[in-house]
Structure formats: structure tokens, C-alpha cells
Amino acid sequence: MNYRPRLALTLGDPAGIGGEVILKALADREIGKKVDLTVVGNGDLLLKHYRHLQENVIIESLANPVNLSILDVNLDKNFNKDEIIIGVENGLSGAASFAYMEAAINHTLAGKFDGIVTGPIAKSAWKAAGYNYPGQTELLAEKAGVEKFGMLFVARSPHTNWTLRTLLVTTHIPLCQVPQVLTPELMTLKLDLLVECLERDFGIKNGKIGIAGLNPHSGEKGQLGREEADWLIAWLEEEKKKRFNITLTGLIPPDTMWVKPGQAWYGNSHIQSKIQNAADGYLALYHDQGLIPVKLMAFDRAVNTTIGLPFIRTSPDHGTAFDIAGKGIADATSMKAAIELAGELVLQRLKN
To answer: What whole-number distance in Å separates Cα of residue 21 and Cα of residue 325?
Structure first.
């Protein structure tokens, strides 16, 4: 398809590394050939990042904001942009990043954009600004009016070109709450989302999905935790009966769940067989069970994708990194990957 997906790219927290990774990513001319990008934020704050980097560090390739398409977001009339200091988190930077998100969502729902790529925000800065959301995912779902949504992490291996897809059943909650939050209904909801996403966004029908156990050794028949024996195994058997066209593997002990993905990712020998042994998607039951291996394999290129929305949303899988903001050392690989993946997913949905 010759269509260039129209993407909103939010600046994220203007005191963090969002501005830097955007300017580095958009310096790659190949990015602009594939998608039609509009930065959603404040042009003068992005220019502030550009000038700071030009004056203080040596960077070979950096996009000039004057050459970019920018949707300037109106901030509160009392907002003093001079109080936004690169590397310093505060309520003002949180209020700005929240306003950018709202603007991007509103324009996307109105049909101006096909999808959103979000720059990193700080939840603590949002809270300081008076916005109590666990993260951008929950705001996106609320504004889009959806109740069924999930956090899918996607990364393409630079070694084998295999794609890792990991969906979290539970997200930003304390570990002690995970057994209480997990229910058959929640497991089914997330599995539904993953199956639909694989087909709708990646063109994978009759896929293979690996599902993790909760406890060490998946409970060891109740000796190391009762959740598997009490209901998880029975839940999975019912799902296998209902989804006879999909291969569901599990409950995989969490300590061995990531062996096959690791082999497919690095592919030291017999690459094709390693890839064939891996699943098309993985269902992890809690945050660190899924994200420790994702970040171990793909820290600089993983993309956070919100599934269940009426539009595409991706984000680099890293935070605001205030400690290195403005130093010119932020890695833009994940931002590039987020932009490229968003474009690919938009095109796949259009094909469908």
C-alpha cells in the first residue's frame, strides 16, 4: 500500500528525554517516507531541547524542529514555559504532558490521525499536576470509551528478525495483589484481546500462544501454590476446547517460559527451527514476569502497544530518564521502533 499512516507523536514530559529521542528518531529520513508524522506538544519547548543539545553536546544527526509538522497545544494561560527545566520533574511538566495526550487522543478520535505514538511521561508528575492515572494506557482507554484493553510489548529481534509479543494480564499493581486480581474472567478477557490482536493487527490466524503459570513450577500440583490446581488449569482446558483453531500451550512454568523465545531471539544455531518452536504471543500473568525477559532481550527496541483501542497506540518502552535528559546520550532506537510499528499496524488494519 502506498498510504502513509497519519500518526500523532506526543512530546511526552517536556523535562524528560522525549524531546531528544524524537529529534534523533526524526533525523532518520527513512522514517518520514513511511509515515506522516505530526508532533503534538509545544514547538518552542521542542526548540528548547534542540538548542540545548546543539550548544552542549555533539550529536551527528538531529532533526530541526522548524522543519517538522507540529500541533501546538494550548496550555493554561498561567503556564510559564520558562519553569520547564530539562532534567527537572515537576507538576508543570506533568500538566503539559497530560495536555499533549488529551490533544492527541481528541484529534485521533476526530479522524485527524490514524494512531498515536506517545513520548514517555512521569506518573509522579501527572499526580503532582492533579491527574491520578496509573499511566497513559488507562487514560487512552477512558477517553476512547473502552473497558477491555491491554498492554502488549512487541520487539523485533535484530539477530533473527523474529517478533516477540508479550501481553500482561495484570499491570501496575503490587505483587501481593496479583493472586486476588487474577480471575478466570480476567484471563479470558486478556486472551480474547491477544487472539484478536494477533489476527487484526499482525495478520496471524490460528496462532500459537504460550501461557505462564503463576507460581514456581506452575504450582507443583499444589505444593508451591494453589492457584493452578484450584482453577488455572481447569480454565485453560476450557479455553482449549473453545479455541480449537488456536494452539494454547501452558501452563508453562515461569522459569522456563522464556527459553524458547530467547532461542528464537538470539538464534545461535538452526535459526528457523528455533523460531518455529516459539509462540506467536505470550501471556504473562503479572508485570515483572513478562517485562524482565522483554527488557533483558529487547531493552533498547521494545515497544509498548495498547490493544483494544479503536486506533493504534504505541510507545517506546522506557521512561522519562530525567537523570540523563539533555545530556545527548538517550537512545532513540525504541522510539524509532514505536513509530515504525505504529505505521505497520495501521496498514495491517486497513488491509483487514
So the answer is: 10
Which homologous superfamily does the CATH classification assign to the domain defined by 148-307?
Isopropylmalate Dehydrogenase (3.40.718.10)
Residues 6 or more apart from 344 whose CB is under 8 A from it? none
With contact defined as beta carbons under 8 Å apart, do 149 and 313 qualify?
no
The region that residue 206 occupies, defined by phi over 0 for left and psi between -120 and 50 for alpha, beta otherwise, is left
CATH superfamily of 1-146+309-352: Isopropylmalate Dehydrogenase (3.40.718.10)
3-class state of residue 211 by DSSP: strand
Instruction: For residue range 241-283, list pLDDT tens digits in order.
Output: 999 899 999 899 999 999 999 999 998 666 776 677 899 999 9
Q: What is the pTM of this model?
A: 0.89
Q: What is the pLDDT of residues 76-135, one digit of tens each?
A: 777 887 888 999 999 999 999 999 999 999 999 999 999 999 999 999 999 999 999 988
Task: Give the Cβ contact number of residue 77 at 10 Å.
Answer: 5
Q: How many CA atoms lie within 13 A of 66 on its CB side?
A: 1
